[in-house]
Amino acid sequence: MDELFTAGKSGDGPLADRMRPRTLDEVAGQDHIVGPGRLLRRAIQADRLSSVIFYGPPGTGKTSLARVIANTTKSAFESLNAVLSGIKDIREAIDRSDERRRLYGKRTILFVDEVHRWNKAQQDALLPWVENGTVILVGATTENPFFEVNRALVSRSRIFQLKSLSPGGLLETARRALADRERGYGAWRVSFEAGALEHLVEVAGGDARSLLNALELAVETSPAAWPPPEGAAVSISLQAAEESIQRRAVLYDKEGDYHYDTISAFIKSVRGSDPDGALYWLAKMVRAGEDPAFIFRRMIILASEDVGLADPAALRVVLSCAESFERIGFPEGNYPLAHACLYLATAPKSNSAMAFFDALGEVEKEDAEVPNHLRDKSRDAEGFGHGEGYLYPHAYRDHWAAQQYLPSALRGRVFYTPGESGYEGVIRGEVLRRRELQAAALLGADTGLAAAADGEILSWSPASKGREGAFKRLESGRSALLLEDRDAILEKLAPARHDRILVANAGDGLLLWEALRRVPEGLCAAVVASPAAREALEGLRLHLDETEKPLFAVIPETPALPDPEEARALFGTPIFDCLAAREPWRRGFGGVDPYKAFAAWARAAAALLDGGALCLSASPPPLGQRVSALLAEPPPVNARTAEYSGTAGRLSAGTERLLARLREAEEAFFTENGASWSWTAETLGDAFKEAGFSIQIETLERREERLVTEKDAAAWFAKSPWGKAIGASLGGPDLEELRRLLGVRFQQGPVLWQWRSLLLFAEKN
Questions:
Q1: Rounded distance, CA 162 to CA 280, Å?
Q2: Residue-wise pLDDT tens digits, 676-693
Q3: Which one, 288, 410, 458, 489, has least CB within 10 Å?
């Protein structure tokens, strides 16, 4: 095994190497990938590591993680440094690995530091052996592997991005080194002048190696001679700290990832109208020696892409600044650079020019013919009538006439929508007014089209040829509602890629699979009601590695949640960052008071969340669709029934009386029929407040078309508590009349079903 992975002692090698973590718990600042329950931690602990590439800035722990893997795995461990190793070294490592696999059935993990330094031929030499499992690759790189590492290697590896350490993580690293008697300076009483250690942390800028190197220099040069007697006091002054860590070089490579990241930060700062951020990233590029022509090129694009018609002068200003820079150069050229940057950052914004790409997409889909009245009449007007019917705008008032300019296949298509900022705000009203007039003129002139549209959208009958289309529209509407639920919950939670998320009542998989996509480096766990539900869901993800699959808990009494100890046993962690659920109480409360059910669930959730958040949707019965409201709506315009007097929307006197009784009966049902049917947003919110959450509740308006049959209506009255209560309230004749009216209404086609749901977002206090 390479000496790189041999633990050093105090005085053997630099402090940064001696203090490398030996276990996962000693790794600082990378909780998002090696914290409890995280994907990488589970893979290392289970010794089921697949090929991985660690990517991040210097001093964030890439090599240290490799050391931890070497200390943990039962596999053989080989290491190479791409700067010092060539094809010969790769072949020797592969030969040893192949021999271990053939003779002893033992895997080999091959660590390659600075893997991006290998050329294409060297990386290609490794590929077949990664492919056939002879070696498990662990690569480390400071450059973006998607650009600097062989695509085939990347496609066979999981990328883990390490982050610069926070000031807290750096302080923890420094204090660990000061307290460690074996590898650090725990044998002496090291103290710092006020602000000295903080200065080292600040200038290190997230780089643990830089911090430890500076700490080593400050400690070992402060006494008259090193080492002093054990137990001696060592005092570090602020001046010594400042001398130990000089100004850091700007991390920038014109050909590499930092170049693209910095220009990206500059563009996004200008687009976001932040002049301070824009100036900072501009200054970083200038100081690093970026080509001013490149910077001006990006600002010219910004002037059209992100400022656009909100300020048409922006393009002219940037071009003038670019021309000025060409004449004067540096250092005075910094002024036109800053001038252009600040103008763009403070200008009103519009990306309406992006409408061009929508038009381009239509062109690529369909090469439509030019309408006859727009064709050139100078060549063949007599033979084909080209140009006939064209309205010459200058012959009309305001130099404008309403006529068709798009191909017939795209008539009514809108590409450009003017914004409300700057110049576009001035022209917006006129553009929209003319568009409305144009649409009205075209539709009014084409009554056949309008009639066809009305027939397709508004009419429906069981015998019509459009029956299949109606079902498809209803199905797509229902799918859209489900996706709205899913997106509303997960967008409110906004989980990070490394978060641990628990999905409750996950049997339909709606939230589960989207959550899994959103936390690829974290943990996705789910609670389902039966082993059959778990098997069905697991079967959909057979192609995933074991460490990537969601973890399941079967709790028959769903929507129950596991307690922390159960969660630790089931999922490897007792805590989660967020919890999601969709309609967890749809099946009812099993005779339990809703408030008690909510409170029990909220307490269980609070125990599982470590300062995290939960989001769930729920639909209180009182906010559901009332049948009386369905019957009060007029039928489609092509329907004529005895229940209506002949004028659409006007109910007969007898029907009005019946609906009034039905409304009273429904109101009584939802207020007097027990807590299970009368709970509200307040009921739900109070339970979560009592459990220690701060909450936000939104009311979502929901609507969809539904096809309801007479059989469905009969089941309402025969089986549901609602039907029994309404029947008892109305009595025989009125009940039969109500059922007849419902049958008539449902025969007329889909009904618009409207209700309201609650979206509860709760954060643990």
A1: 24
A2: 889 999 999 999 999 999
A3: 458
